[in-house]
Amino acid sequence: MNSFRRPGKAIHTRRSDWQSWIAANADLVTASGLPAAAIDTEDSWWYFIDRTYTQAGCLGTDIWFGVDFMTIDQRRSCMQLVDRWIADRASDLDSDGIRHIRRMFGFANDCG
After folding, report:
1. Is the pLDDT of residue 74 over 70?
2. Which of 51, 110, 98, 102 lies closest to 43, judged by CA?
């Protein structure tokens, strides 16, 4: 049986929107050094943002990757990407959530 996604399906639309957003922010994705496992889907992005690492093993082939492996410049680029994501796609995130993300990425004093 052939499997395909029709453009009208909600999951296809969400995935397509996400891939378009990633493409529009490719400069920051590249500068931050994020592996595909961290940005493949918006759910994987949420996982990375929430935990500051990607999970390998049964969920993918990329090696484990976390904020602790990033240079300060990569973290700055990643934080800029996070800020754009919040503005564009997660504007309902409250200020406590934003502060938590900044703290997890090493920018607790909003100095990033």
Report:
1. yes
2. 51
